[in-house]
Amino acid sequence: MMTQEYDVFICHRGETKRNFVSVLGGMLRSKGITCFVDYRMPTGNDVQLEINGAIEKSKVFIVVLSPDFAGSTWCLDEIGEIMRIRDLPGTPRKVIPVFYDVQKKDTLYDLTQVKRSNAEKINRWGKALEDVCKLDEFVYDSSSTLQWEKSQEIVAKVEDFLISHRTIPDQGTKMPIWRECINYDVFICHWHLDTQRNVVSVLRGMLLCKSITPFVGGYGKDDGGSALDSDIIQAIENSRVHVIFLSPNFVCSKRCLEEVVYIMNIQGSPGTSDASRKPTVVPVFYDMKPSTARYQKEGKAYYLEEAQKSSTADDRERWASALHHLSLLHGLEYDSCSTFQWEKLYDVVKIVEASAKKITPRNYWSNHEALYVKKIDEVFKELELQEKREHVFLAGVYGRETSEFSDLLVQRLGSNFCGVCKLNNIMEKACQPNGISKIVQQMLSDLIHPSKSSDLIQPSTSNDVKRCQLLLENERCLVVLDDLGNDIDKIKTLLEDLKSILRNNSLVVVASQFQHSLQELNVHKFISLSSLESKRDFLNICYTERDGINKAFLSHLSETFDMLGLDVRLLNEDKLKSDSTCLQDAKVTLCIISKSFSIDEFKSMFTNAAIPPKIIYVSYGSNPTDESIPKPFFKMEVDFEKAEFNKPQFKSMVNEVVQTLNERGEEIMGAIDFPVGLAQRSSDIECSILECVSRNENSVQCFGLVGMGGIGKTTLARSIFNKIHSQFERSFFGLNTRAEVQGKGTLGLIDVQKKMITKLSNIRSDDVRIDNAEHGKMVLSSKVKHINALIVLDDVDDGRHLEAFCEPLQSSLGPKSVIIITTRDQKILGSAKSTMIFDIERLDEERSTSLFYWHAFMKPKPPADLEKVSQSVIEACQGLPLSLKIIGSDLYGNSDREYWEDSLKLLQKGKKAIVDVLRISFDRLDTDEKEAFLDICCFLINEDVELTCMILKACYGVGKAHLNTLKNKCLITTYVGEYDEYRGRISRIGMHDQLRDMGRHIIREERRDQQRDQRRDRAWDEETANEILQRNAWSSLRGLSVWSHIPLPEDASDWTSLPRLRILVVKHDYWRDRTHSHAERGRLRPQDIFRNVRCGGLRWLRWEGVPFEELPQGLCSTNIQVLELRACYKLKRLDMTSLWSLRALFKSHNARDWQQYCLIFIKYFPFIKRLIVF
Q1: DSSP state of 15
Q2: For residue 413, what pLDDT is reported?
Q3: What is the reported pTM?
Q4: Three-state SS annotation for 776-836
Q5: What is the superkingdom listed in this entry's lineage (predicted)?
Q6: What's the pLDDT tens digit per position in 157-189?
């Protein structure tokens, strides 16, 4: 029989088997990570063959070095084999040592005392132990370490390794993080010295994984407390389950005894006649018999006369009575010497789960949830009333909010089934190697009780399936599979496997955002949530009219949130008092607190109504208050006669709303500062699009937004996307298509195709293989087939974009799909066969005036002495939003009339092109600010803000200040980028394409004076690099960005030194690098040039796919501060002796030595600010 493949092999001695290893194995399996531990081997199998086979086929090895580890030749042989396997070429493997109740120095065991040993074995074992001790380790002290938290760290380490090597999918969430709360599901009573660090720690973690909130008094503290406080009493009263660990020293604690009294008083209270409403009490007799607590005999642990000598007789009598009645309740006995910890605590969790999640009375559900509950009850009713009973009843759930529905279904119906399993991200998991098998195994791990699961194996043969059927033959199971994805073949394979195992009228619920997938599965019951899901989110703005709140401020509030796609309702005080229920359906409520409208007055309106889920308070004006200030709270001095608008505070408040909605999966794209006049225009276009789609739902509809650069096309497209994306199964916004593709050739097209596929199909980018643009069209067409999606392609200016993106989408998307294209070229929209084209016009005089005033003065009106000149400046901007924004921001803060008039003259000096208008703001920057702006134009758009700060500081001595100046003048923006698997969501640099083009034009423009080529000092693509080389301007080169596969002109071979070069970026096109012709191979590429060139002034080096074994000395500048070496598989050595200015190192490599190397690096480079190794 072939050995099963495992993700993890745990090498351990018997002394850790029942506690630490039992829990660690259970935690790994609960994450879908297959794990080998010897005590779970199938009965009758050859032990030696099983162990050797498991080691050979595992990827991660956890070695638990305990005091008696070396007493077992089995353990020593295992560690020897593990270290031998680890160093073999091929599959990457990781060894994680855990020092369990031993110090590292103690692990040099006296191997001469090992029985049945010889010199050869002792040397081999000693070498293996010595090598293990050199690795990054975990230290576990059973007397002080919290078991769950330490095990969680180990599991996270394993998970990170397996995810990085694509063995398991990234599920987006780790183990649960504890947060303080008010209402608890479970109260855990225990004596901390006996049980908190082991069983209580693990039980607490297991409950949190089940979304059950436990209260553990004094968790993680050495002092368990001595008396009942209000928090403990409240937790006992609010909990539905009381778990009491009666351990040998339990009665040493007065607090524990008082907790038992309080709990038992609740059980005996005559105030609750309905026993089902009383909390469930679960006594766990930990290393003691129930009779010990029941009779409390002299000489025994629970003899209170001895344990509580200093207490009064009355107290001892109360405690004795409570313990006696508690011991009469049916509980669980736990012997730490013979009990497998995970398996026994699993029994406790099942009891708690059944009690803590009892069906809630109907009046508890919100209106939204009540509709879901009705659908859930329909499913169960149909399951029970089948005329012909099936082994498996299949229900399909369609909608965007299937996760919330699935959670509610498990909570509502779970108690009707023997086993329950809910799995998320099914398609992502199914796309991994052996993905279907791993999903089935994880399901079986959840459904089959641990006491039976020692025989559980991966069901790959008919005999294996029969064994699983036998284990579940009398079980009725509930299985919920969420996020099925769009690959119908994988879904069908998975369901066939489930149907071959499950029996007894089990219920399988499959949930998907794609209706066509469920229809192809022939489900017994189809549930559509689309009619129950809100198409747009409501935002209520509550205020009083008594304090004369500025109408311009209210209008700005309303327009800003309308652009975010929210249905904004302005509710004054009278409306709230007459009908406070109008707030119930809003996702967020914004309450404007003013002089006559206090927080307490606002809250008093909810006496007979539900409190909104999220309330954000805004203080309007300087109003002193004695009230406690709730969070979140934003204070705004809105008095335009005395002060200007507080833009940073306003943006913080807007970001709070956006963050709240994005946490709910709303995909809200960020707002602009002052969307004057755009909200109504966006709503008009939205209505026209939806009306057109409603008339024709049989084919993909394409719409176009056309207009000159800077007119607001992208802003309008973002707003429309925000407003209607929730009406589609999936959505994709392709920002700056031209910039994404420009200068990248085929690779640029492929990158955008990959982004579309991953976003629309919800699969990882690494799982999408595209060879070229034509192949990408076929892959895109197959992956998004039948999906009803909203697609926005921004700034399309080339027919190749339509061929690579639009054509496959139009031929494969579902009939209710919509494609929106923004462009400056009307012909593009004709080629795309647009159903309707919207010509975006300039702003009228009123809106131009309003937009300019906000940017120039942070007020809706200007000072009287600048009103006339302001009108002339506005007229010169010709209604172009970008010009009004840039010129207004440039003039902001300057009240000198003469300065304004000079600006007007520049605008009127025959400069009609927008680039000339924008140039005015650039020309007023100081020298370093100009250089920083040009660096961003050429090299830093879409880069990490923190990284950009470091680079600018390295080049000019100042980073953040330059960014703030450019941002205040609206020359750059910042935005939160897509999720990064290493650093999460990070803030990035953005720039309008007109500004980018202006900056690059400044660099390339011809000068007729003596400084003609002074600006030709940056090259950001092949064309500009060739221009500089042809003009022999390379000696003045400040920045260079090139592709590793593109050869440079032969003149580059003359380079010996680039003294002014500050920035060098070498990008790597993996596909092109493999396939470029032999003729090109003979020409000079960047690695050939820079092997011998000195770059003494270099500040930032990024080289992707470093082709050197050692970085050339010429690139190891003493001035370099930011070093990025990505995918540097060939790099074997990095000489740091000259890199004393280094502040940030980004390193990507799969070698095991690098993380340890970088820890040493930190020690010798104390000034390092940022180190990333992945």
Answers
A1: G
A2: 87
A3: 0.64
A4: HHHHHHHHCCCCCEEEEECCCCCHHHHHHHHHHHHHHCCCCCEEEEEECCHHHHHHCCCCE
A5: Eukaryota
A6: 998 888 887 666 655 444 444 444 446 889 999
